[in-house]
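Re: weekly structure request thread

Next one in the queue (310 aa):
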Amino acid sequence: MRAITASFFIFCFLVPSVLAQLRHRFYVVTCPLAESIVARVVSKHVLLNRNVTAALLRMQFHDCFVNGCDASLLIDSTSERPSEKSAGPNASVRGFEIIDEAKKELEIACPKTVSCADIVTLATRDSIALADGARFTVRLGRRDGLRSNPSDVNLPGPTISVAASIKAFNAKGMTLMDMVTLIGGGHTVGVAHCSLFQDRLKDPAMDPRLKAKLNKTCSGPNDPSVFLDQTSPFRVDNAIYRQILNQRGILRIDQNLGLDSLTKGFVSTFASSDRFFREKFVEAMQKMGEIGVLTGDSGEIRTNCRVFNN
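Done, posted below.
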């Protein structure tokens, strides 16, 4: 574990020459309305459904952690060619219609210009701001990938150990603080089905009032879902960290972040300062959005986010 920790702060996954091709205001000449078009589409959907932020956060995480942020998750499966969408961990990913709508408008405004990968990044960024989260800028210039294979999908699940989660995030160039920030920040607006936290309901340390409430909810049919943040489930804030400190973390990985010696300090710090959490969440989101990106002449700019051009 010491060796893992020592290497955790070495961010070498992203090649500097590649990242240099990502930049702010990338579409200022080729598609000046790109960011405003995406923002308008996302705003419309958030007004109709406040769960959109959680959906887009999950989408970007699941895309970036499999072969980089290249919109490979958006490709539809066919009988001849299954895609990442058909992998088990991606069965619960939602919000593809939002990306489709933004892409359709962008193809009218500036054809073959804005990548699906950049749309996902922008849409997620905008949805966070609309959930009372921090407002931040992102660098653009990603291109869309040419591979989408379900066998590539190996994502950390809700019962993963802290040590295994560290290894998974470290492999993507993310620090220990990034990991705690992204897990908590993603779950502060997320939901989970009862089948995903049955192990926690057997934990004698769980807050008894929460356990009673969850047991009652989970006794219903069709695998009910619950909010992971019990006080502000539609806001990207630090509330979930305070709940973790009080043994009210619903998912095993969430609660273990508050117990493990390597991560509990970060949980306490975030729990005590919403401002600090927001600052670090922005940094982690910007970094995650640049994992393994394709730029320059690599990949393609899809005209339909669900299918490869050829």
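The longest helix spans residues 34-48. The first strand starts at residue 191 and ends at 193.
Next request, please.
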